[in-house]
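Entry 14. Two folds queued back to back today. First construct below, sequence then structure tokens.
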Amino acid sequence: MPSGMKTKPLKDDIHKYLKKHKLGRKFQKAKELFEQDINHPSLNVEILEPKHLKVYSFRLT
């Protein structure tokens, strides 16, 4: 896996969900870790199908 990644802006409905569930700070921290080092032990990263597109996701826990 690459060491750091770029992220695309979130859609409005995702912003609303994060705000409603008070996950904004947690998401921002995970996003920064993801952008710096996707192998960070606190991230739950997976590559999505089809793998050749190299689209990754991470979960907030």
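Second construct, same run, same settings:
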Amino acid sequence: MLVALTGYDQEANLRNSRDAGFEFHLAKPVTVGSLRQLLQSVKELKSSREGGGNATPLQNHKGLDTSLTSC
């Protein structure tokens, strides 16, 4: 699992992260809630992959902290 942690959160930055092989993109500042949600997403993704599912990694975690919300 690769997570891009950056101060940039424009669509072009998200594409660049995806093109570089990152599965997740977090824009600073990152909150504890955002990290918790990311870890939960990774756990669910891993479970889905182990179960033979075809889950797609989240694209962007910008603004996740809006009450606990995908590269």
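Quick look at the second one. The beta strands are 3-6, 24-27. The radius of gyration is 12 Å.
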